[in-house]
Design goal:
Layout (H helix, E strand, L loop, with lengths): L11 H6 L14 H14 L5 H6 L4 H14 L16 H16 L6 H4 L21 E5 L2 E5 L8 E9 H6 L4 H13 L4 E4 L7 E3 L16 H11 L6 E7 L7 E4 L3 E2 L2 E2 L3 E5 L9 H10 L32 H7 L2 H4 L1
Helix pairs in contact: 2-5, 2-9, 10-11
């Protein structure tokens, strides 16, 4: 019987496992099919698998232990020759995982904040023409009145961020992550906010995830939870640190921020995905998604095309480079890490 979950279907090794005893998946196996089994175990059971095994997609000790625990919990035993569960993925196990993954894939998920955020009304307190770099005092017209904008208020505070990138994005797309960080840092420092990038064993963790991400408000095929699960397995969340994952995404969104996603039985803090296939030459995608994460819920995008919180920038034809950060956004950004 062919496998039906979006995660498993079409994988030759797993399709063979579903129908052939000789194709059982056992300790020592390596490859994409093992990575998919690991992801399924993490998704349906919250299994904790060693980072080394996840990155190498190896069926090692912790993967075997997760398989055994999964089978024991569901009493998956071939009574014709067994009296207890083992740590082998065979016909019964892959069929059970496939069935549970289908249910997970069809469970409604909250869409990304950008999907829900239409342009907002003009803000009379914002500059109505693209501001010059390093402005201090700028006069502008709002209706029949002249207003005066001074240099941004120095708010203080800091934002802690760590980055992860899928192997596919790293090897195929060459996403300008450092340029996005530089723009975010420069924009924030005007308001006295520091940006701290958390580095462990490299600039960004590499995730063993090859599927393009489908953020589907109707839930069919949505795999945002799956990449978030892999992300958590590679580096568990740390309080106060904003998680950003660079990956390939289906559709024309340059990035999305997600909240209220349930991973491993708990609601995880807001996190962002940046689409490695759609690049804003103005480099504002990261700061845009950080603003979403800093808000208590979905808010409307800015109406000013030069705002970093406008709904799109120079990643689309005719788009404007976004460089201006509204004071009200800076205020919520200054306390972002305290909210995570």
């Amino acid at each position: 019987m062919a496998l039906s979950s979006r995660l498993f279907r079409g994988n030759r090794a797993l399709e063979a496992c579903a129908v052939q005893d000789s194709a059982h998946v056992t300790r020592g196996a390596t490859g994409e099919h093992v990575g998919k089994i690991q992801l399924a175990l993490s998704t349906v059971d919250g299994a904790l698998i060693d980072r080394a095994e996840l990155l190498s997609q190896q069926y090692g000790r912790s993967t075997a232990a997760a398989v055994l625990a999964y089978k024991q919990k569901r009493q998956i035993i071939n009574r014709s020759y067994q009296s207890a569960a083992d740590d082998v993925v065979g016909k019964m196990t892959i069929a059970s995982l496939d069935k549970e993954m289908i249910a997970k894939e069809l469970t409604p998920k909250p869409p990304g904040d950008c999907v829900l955020s239409p342009p907002g009304p003009p803000n009379p307190a914002a500059i109505l023409a693209r501001p010059p770099a390093g402005f201090q005092r700028t006069r502008f017209l709002t209706g029949s009145r002249t207003a005066l904008v001074t240099a941004p208020k120095q708010l203080g505070g800091f934002i802690r961020v760590f980055f992860q990138i899928t192997l596919r994005s790293a090897t195929e797309d060459g996403y300008p992550l450092s340029a996005n960080i530089e723009l975010a840092r420069d924009t924030l420092i005007e308001h006295g906010i520091s940006l701290s990038v958390e580095i462990r064993s490299g600039f960004a963790d590499t995730l063993p995830f090859s599927e393009p991400i489908l953020n589907n408000p109707d839930a069919a095929g949505d795999n945002v939870d799956q990449i978030r699960t892999v992300s958590e397995n590679v580096r568990p969340g740390v309080r106060g640190v904003f998680r950003v994952i660079v990956c390939q995404m289906v559709g024309n969104s340059a990035g999305e921020t997600f909240r209220n996603r349930v991973i491993g039985g708990r609601i995880v803090p807001p996190f962002a995905l940046l689409n490695s296939q759609i690049v804003d030459s103005g480099r504002a995608t990261l700061i845009h998604e950080m603003i979403h994460a800093s808000k208590p819920g979905v808010v409307q995008h800015d109406s000013e095309t030069f705002s970093v919180f406008f709904d799109h920038g120079s990643e689309k034809p005719g788009g404007t480079a976004r460089t201006f950060l509204r004071p009200e956004h800076a205020l919520t950004l200054s306390t972002l890490s305290a909210k995570l």
